[in-house]
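Model: Ready when you are.
Researcher: Fold this.
Model:
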Amino acid sequence: MFTVTYAQLNGWLTAFLWPFTRILALIAAAPILGHRSLPTRVKIGLAGFTTLIVAPTLGAMPQATVFSAEGVWILANQFLIGIALGFVMQLVFAIVSTAGELMGLGMGLGFATFFDTMAASNQSAISSVLNMFAMLAFLVFDGHLQMIAALVATFQSVPISANVLAAPGWRMLAEWGSVIFSSGMLLALPVVVALLITNLSLGILNRAAPQIGIFQVGFAVTVLAGLLLSMLMVPNMIPFFARLFDSGIEEMGRVAEALRPPG
């Protein structure tokens, strides 16, 4: 007769549940994999399948029962780690959205918005297009696989334990948020500068020949100039996205290292 002791059952549960929580938290918070259009059952199934592969390689788990105070604290730690790592990659796509907002504002399309199901908020039309390009590039570059591989590597840098996560990791995550503005402006800079020159030229033309009625044609000129420049940027935009994704994957490792509890 096959019998299972409580110690064996607890060992199986902890070996699966704790890594599963970290992986599922990342999938829920990460771009593409955490998109609302992806069914919840698919996310849970992907997290469970990944856990079944990863769990046997993690070694011994802390000696704590699943539903004890220590076990629940370990569960909360794994959830926080997964959310933090997923948020790192979300900020990469926030860079693209920021660039689209800046470009749309310069083109006069700031009022043209769509409802973004991922962010649950309105997003400009240019941001939606750039986000679509970024998502396709992310899949083409196997960013989703690199992201999961980076997560699996964190089980070595941040082992499963009940220790309090280190503060430098959260500070590094906050500092990574500043990249949104610098990189977003860098991506949008060619279009923003060209549109600034266009608007200055239209302003000078309006002063030189007021009878032209520059306010009637100015909007069409800035939109056409912005769309043309955006189209010309596409060949150089994809390599820029690749560098952003690589930076995000590397930042995941650095944040995980900084979150490692002391001792």
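Researcher: Now this one.
Model:
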Amino acid sequence: MTRVVLAEDGTLLREGLVGLLGRLGFDVAAAVGDADALIAAVEEYDPDLVVTDIRMPPGFSDEGLRAACQLRAQRPLPVVALSQYVERSYAEELLDSAGGRAVGYLLKDRVVDVEEFGQALRTVVGGGTLIDPEVVRQLMRRSDPLDRLTPREREVLALLAEGDSNLAIADKLTVTEAAVNKHVGNILAKLDLPPSTDSNRRVLAVLTWLRRRD
């Protein structure tokens, strides 16, 4: 079973998540209520996955996010930030850590399917990257577009960030799917992410845009 350390300051929600994770087949080694306890539990239990809230005691600002970044700086520990908020401070650092692999940022009120939530956690444990589109949108609002990209490529990248398929993008932009495929290839090349079979490359392209500013 996948061993999990859970950090959530709300007692009722924490206990509810413990039960939910157990039903989904995860082994919750520890469930804690603050960032210091999270770091201590990871050191003690060496989990396969950390699921953490972002705003926790004592300051209720970004303690969980900072703790996650600290843990990821030590080793590429799979981490899923599960929050009601998009906390911009440290968010890019977390999503950029370990090459953007084995990390997720999900919003609590947008998790509507239990089985999909379980699959999302397994994806991150397996090295995948999952970011709620709303998180991407809010982070992108303060980012400067890269001069390398044409206006059309920026449109395509924005739709990629929202999780649209190439076919859906073609429909929205009233172009052919082949044209979108070409734009995506150009974006990946311009952002030094050459085409591959890596399922994370579309997300990595968005993260590259977010972190590379003038």
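Researcher: Key takeaway?
Model: The chain has two domains: 2-132, 143-211.
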